[in-house]
Design brief:
heterotrimer; A mainly alpha (about 290); B mainly alpha (about 325); C alpha/beta (about 260); A: about 290 residues; globular; B: two-stranded antiparallel ribbon; about 65% helix
């Protein structure tokens, strides 16, 4: 039985990891929490559903959704956040605009798609697989494979490519990077796009696993993904991934050995404990401030 | 407070005192009472967010603790509202203090997320600790306060005046805090924590103090709300409530007491006034927050005051001292 | 006995020695300057004196009390206050409020007094306001009382930082490059200002690059290079000291870059 729970926990954990990475990417560069990330996840899921019902085929539907959702974030950044950065507004202002953005997105989804829970096609089939005592759905295998590939891909992108180098440079010191001829604006847009992409893929994987979508579906998972990223050390991609997996496993084991009732509290209790012991998260680095 | 502020508050107070005489519908009374409560919530969060510059995304949790404390005490022991409210203030402040012990070394994003997490934990507890909280049934038929032999209801304007009285007290308290060592210290911590500590300020002591006061006041709001609405459950304290309180603080203008009341008035009334926009009103609401931040980052009434510093009455200042508060005297 | 006695103090960050075996002392009423090339460890010494950093090794005695590794707040209370190389005023507070923050430790009432407006509250608030006005008046800040610190002219910001430090009741002021970014006229004014402080009985340690300020004002000078004290003496001695000239200009065979 325990193995079964571990498998389920790992699947959920990878989803959290994908969401957490979305928070982390943006935080790394802008030192800002995007409170609209959960809503972006919901937008991604609804877009896929819409394009799939238009019979565009799964892959084009996913790509279109990524382009649309990622594009939405880029537009939001270019129009709102960039203005705030130019005005050197305090971080709290940017945070509040993301709360407003989240409101807009969620309510727009409710108006366009209705508030009810809609069924989502099982894009990866709903075949069950059994190995020994452990049963799992085929879509769980998809979750495992796709999210690991995506996480590795992002890591490679950031560590091995020119774009990644530019991203790290902007993260370190955006003004210096600008002076070195790096297009900081472009880099920030790429970051937002990648953040949106990871949210859409998380939405694709989980929605086809649960086979449901609804406008507020991103609220709780957004909070948990955020916790996962802080847990691992926000700003660190590796930390976000590990944080997500730890969170998924902890939730699953709580359901197994304690009670399902407290499932939604696990993430936050865990976060509490970790932050008190390690104020910068598991893999976060402490800053030394110069006087 | 300078003269103009005093006039503002007096006019507002007189208007609010006279308003029920016009004959408010129950609905209007409820909305205005809610505005009072949200003004108080914003005032309480303002201590942490406005003065000290730390974001709490879980203020609703303390609001909830206050509501449940007062509601349960009244249900089980039938105590008078003033007593249950006092217990709510003390107990919520105590929880806030306990919460602040390990968490006040954190700041910024980390504090924001941990307060948000606390909000979720409290919600899960409310739903699942059925023996205490009646789970999803919530607290029903919470008694109306009785004061001076009168039952304060919506119909006799009692709740309206009770909430207003609390709001007046809380504004007075916040003015006192703002114009004291505590207020100055908190603003100094926001501007530069390191320089503050080199002025001899014990950062963690003040952060805890601010958080404790802030949460105790939120507990007071909870008590008022529970007895105003007569019913509370976990959904009354959804994370959206925390976001709403934070939005009021930022929208009204961090650090501005007037801003909290005006901000609450606008943001709470908005969805009600704009009912004709139907479901679009929440989109407009989000837009307002964004537009506000882009064009007036300091909020409606926040930012540097254009008026001179107001000395306490008992300090004598020779008149010639002056200069423009916002740098007109200096070359920019 | 000297007001401040620093003996054999070292500070290491990881394996890197920022300051090694530094000895110096400051007598009451003196103006002592610490000079040296960038990165020599001057500001580190201020951070050690004020408790921002802990010392790895050594002893700091101020006014007869060992203060190394004591809490920042304790050291302020003991009577050491400082300014910063990059001005760190409370920018969104008014000039008078900045100075009142300096009185923080001496404003002795608690939250109870505040809520109930006890006589004690009134007494200490009155005192804080009056002392702040007094300090500002004596430093010629009268016309800037209401101005937000962030909006003050640059030179006034530097001076306000000093006023704030004085307000803590400090005997010993540590001034970190107060003349940085000033034009010659402003420097000259600052020079007079600091001399005025000495006349009022303050003891001052100065970190400064502007040699015209240092040579004009210092009673004694210490020279720091690569975390070590390489020379000390009267201004004229330092000006002619061969080791110092080398540290600044580099030896002829390996030209040091700035």
């Amino acid at each position: 039985m325990t193995v079964q729970y571990l498998v389920n926990g790992l699947t959920m954990g990878l989803i959290y990891a994908l969401i957490a990475v979305g928070y982390s990417l943006v935080f790394g560069i802008l030192k800002m929490i995007n409170m609209a990330h959960g809503a972006i996840y919901a937008v991604g899921a609804h877009m896929i559903l819409m394009f799939v019902t238009w019979n565009l085929g799964t892959l084009p539907a996913v790509i279109l959704s990524i382009v649309f959702t990622g594009g939405l974030l880029v537009v939001y950044d270019r129009s709102i956040l960039a203005t705030l950065r130019k005005k050197k507004a305090p971080g709290i202002a940017a945070l509040v605009t993301t709360i407003g953005f989240s409101q807009i997105l969620t309510n727009a989804l409710q108006i366009i798609f209705g508030t009810e829970i809609k069924s989502f096609p099982a894009l990866f089939g709903n075949k069950m697989i059994q190995i020994g005592n452990v049963k799992f759905q085929f879509s769980q295998v998809y979750i495992l494979v796709v999210s690991v590939i995506l996480l590795l891909g992002l890591t490679l992108l950031i560590n091995k490519t020119k774009v990644g180098l530019a991203m790290r440079a902007v993260e370190q010191n955006s003004r210096a990077a600008d002076l070195m001829g790096i297009n900081a604006k472009g880099v920030i847009s790429v970051t937002f796009f990648l953040s949106g992409m990871s949210a859409v893929i998380a939405a694709l994987l989980l929605a086809s696993y649960y086979q449901t979508v609804y406008p507020t579906m991103g609220a709780m998972i957004g909070l948990k993904g955020f916790s996962a990223s802080v847990l691992g050390g926000i700003g660190s991609l590796f930390g976000a991934a590990i944080g997500g997996i730890i969170l998924g496993l902890a939730e699953s084991l709580t359901v197994a050995f304690l009670s399902g009732a407290y499932r939604d509290a696990v993430a936050f209790i865990l976060l509490f404990i970790i932050l008190i012991i390690r104020p910068n998260g598991l893999f976060g680095k402490a800053k030394i401030s110069k006087v | 407070m300078d003269k103009r502020d005093k006039i503002f508050w007096l006019v507002l107070l007189v208007a609010l005192l006279a308003l029920p005489a016009v004959g408010l519908s129950r609905y209007m009374q409820r909305i205005i009472s809610l505005i009072f409560i949200y003004s108080m919530l914003a005032l309480s969060l303002n201590i942490v967010t406005g003065y000290m510059g730390q974001v709490s995304l879980g203020h609703a949790a303390f609001y909830a603790i206050g509501a449940y404390t007062s509601g349960l005490l009244s249900e089980h022991f039938g105590w008078n509202f003033l007593l249950t409210c006092l217990c709510a203030i003390v107990f919520t402040g105590f929880i806030g203090w306990i919460f602040s012990l390990p968490t006040m070394k954190l700041s910024g994003t980390y504090l924001a997320i941990i307060t948000m997490g606390f909000g979720e934990i409290v919600k899960v507890l409310i739903v699942n600790w059925e023996s205490l909280t009646h789970g999803t049934y919530g607290l029903q038929n919470i008694a109306k306060p009785e004061l001076f032999g009168m039952t304060l209801k919506t119909t006799n304007n009692g709740m309206y005046y009770l909430c207003l009285a609390f709001l007046v007290l809380m504004v007075l308290l916040c003015v006192a805090i703002e114009r004291s060592k505590l207020g100055r210290t908190l603003r100094a911590i926001q501007d530069d924590p390191l320089a503050s500590s080199l002025m001899g300020i014990e950062l963690s002591h003040y952060k805890r103090l601010a958080f404790t006061i802030s949460t105790a006041l939120a507990g007071c709001c909870g008590a008022l709300y529970a007895h105003l609405s007569g019913y509370v459950d976990a959904n009354s304290f959804h994370s959206d409530v925390s976001m709403m309180i934070l939005s009021i603080v930022i929208f009204g203008g961090r650090g501005s007491i007037k801003g909290m009341v005006v901000g609450a008035g606008i943001l709470v009334a908005f969805p009600e006034v704009f009912r004709f926009l139907a479901e679009y009103r929440f989109i407009v609401y989000g837009l307002i927050l964004i537009v506000m931040m882009v064009f007036r980052t300091d909020g409606l009434l926040g930012g540097h005051s254009k008026r001179p510093y107001v000395f306490p009455r008992y300090v004598k200042v020779n008149k010639e001292g002056g200069g423009e508060p916002d740098g007109a005297a200096g070359s920019k | 006995m000297a007001l401040l006695e620093v003996s054999n103090v070292s500070k290491q960050f990881g394996g890197l020695a920022a300051v090694s075996n530094v000895d110096f002392h400051v007598e009451e009423g003196e103006i002592v300057s610490i000079i040296g090339p960038n990165g020599a460890g001057k500001t580190t010494i201020f951070n050690l004196l004020t408790g921002v950093y802990t010392v790895t090794e050594g002893k700091i005695v101020f006014n007869g009390e060992e203060i190394q590794n004591k809490k920042v707040q304790h050291i302020v209370n003991a009577g050491i206050a400082r300014t910063f190389q990059n001005i760190r005023l409370f920018k969104n507070m008014r000039t008078i409020e900045n100075v009142m923050i300096g009185f923080h430790q001496n404003t002795k009432y608690n939250t109870f007094d505040l809520i109930f407006r006890t006589p004690r509250f009134r007494k200490y608030e009155k005192a804080a306001h009056e002392k702040a006005l007094e300090v500002l008046d004596s430093l010629g800040f009268g016309k800037y009382i209401h101005t937000y610190a962030g909006n003050l002219p640059y030179g006034e910001q530097r001076k306000l930082e000093i006023a704030r430090a004085i307000a803590t009741g400090a005997k010993l002021l540590l001034l970190d490059e107060p003349a940085a970014g000033m034009n010659p006229q402003e420097s000259a004014e600052l020079l007079e200002f600091i001399k005025g402080l000495q006349a009022k009985g303050f003891t001052i340690i100065l970190i400064e690059h502007d040699m015209s300020v240092v040579m004009n004002i210092s009673d004694r000078i210490y020279v720091l290079d690569h975390g070590r004290m390489i020379a000390d003496g009267l201004p004229e001695e330092i000006a002619n000291n061969q080791t110092v000239i080398e540290a600044y200009l580099g030896k002829s065979e390996d030209d040091a870059d700035d």
